[in-house]
Amino acid sequence: MERRDFLKLTVGVGASFCLHDTNSAAQAVHKRPNIVLIVLDELGYYELSCMGHPLLETPNIDRLAKEGMRFTQMLAGAPVCAPTRCCLMTGKHLGHASVRRNPGQEALRSEDVTVADVLRKAGYVTGGFGKWGCGGRGTTGVPEKHGFDVFFGYYDQVHAHTYFPAYLIKNSQEVPLKGNTGALYEGETFSHQLIFEEAMKFIRDNKDQPFFCYCPWTPPHGVWGLPEGEPSWQKYKDKQWDAGYSIKENEAQRYAAMVHMDDRQIGQILDLLEELKIDDNTLVIVSGDNGGHLYFQNETHPHGFFAPNVDPKTGQVFRGQKGLLYEGGLRIPFIVRWSGKVRAGMVSEHLGYFPDIMPTLAELAGVNCPADIDGISIVPTLLGGHSQKNHKYLYWEFNGQTAVRCGHWKAYKPRKGEWELYDLSEDIEEKKNVAAQHRAKLEEMIGYANEAHEPHVPGDVLDMELCMKDHQKTKNPKPWEQRRR
Questions:
Q1: Could you tell me if 78 and 116 lie in one domain?
Q2: Domain extent at residue 425
Q3: Which of 208, 369, 434, 441 is deepest in the core (most CB within 10 A)?
Q4: Tens digit of each residue's pLDDT (9 = 90 or more) over 447-468
Q5: Counting beta carbons within 10 angstroms of the beta carbon of residue 439, is it exposed (0 to 12), middle (13 to 18) or buried (19 or more)?
Q6: Distance CA 82, CA 87 (A)
């Protein structure tokens, strides 16, 4: 049965939809949900207390997992920040995406359609608060030209390397930040607090109409400059940890504080939804953006001090990290809560990735997606009642690497070297290359890779000087560029 036969949607402001459960005679009638989509930069798959992490505390994300659905195989669109955001926004994988690398001048094309474009057609007011990464000022990729009524934060990912920038951007206009020079660790105005407050204001201001609040927050991405009075920093600053870095004392404590700060602010958003009495009709998604970075890696901590890709319960390791197309570069935390609609306490092994977000939100909003996207709606998994369509294959390419996923099979080609093949049902750590034993399967997956790739055509740069202004390096070096002790 086609989905249109059992999901009848009426599009327009104030519209509702009827979900016909194919497994029962019951009908559930809901308003279109408000949507809060929070993407935390570099938060690792296992960096949640609900996953057993021994040091990091995330009680509010844990609450979302308890009250909603946690996905074990929802994968990033890319292993780094700009292209993964492009995949999320456009519903396209890296073989079709406009942004496939991380330079500031790479941008969405003017004709690209985003999640915000799609939702605005359904009557949603759309706001973004955080790190955009899909095109800096002076390009065709700015968010206000791609469906956002307002976007406040960083347009360029290098601009986001400090939490004390001299300015933030709101709809391509600079917003000066008092007392800041762009230094990494010092300044009068903590940018993330302003971004969080603007997101809260957006929700309050739009509580009486459908809204899409997109929060691609930079924390806990380094560098970890925090105000002395930040409550989460006060909680962690005196922990006796030595992560092995020389540039700044208490780097590991700062990272933990930022994870806790994200979680605390997610709790404040949940409290606000309850206060405004819109909690039961708001879909909340919390996700990472790409695989974990092995921060504070040394001989004592070979997988990083916080071991984002190591299962604390079993010791199994997702191979690789951010920047690589092994599982460690793609596995992300992904949790969805919609009170009374998504069954509480569910854990789904459905295999999906960022291109699936657009068609999922579009289906819930009652509006069509562009015909050329690569994503598949996961509404059947979220709401139950009818069969979930699965991907024939998932595809990635990045920096000379290529990867294809077909069910439990994973094919990977490094920048230099031959194709590798892994059976993830038997080898989640990607240690045993079985390409020689399963040559026919590998050839099938190489064929999918050839089918998926098309030449890269990024958007246009209209003002290079303006674009590069936000892409300038910060005034202090990055901690991972310093010599470890």
A1: yes
A2: 400-452
A3: 369
A4: 999 999 999 999 999 999 999 9
A5: exposed
A6: 9
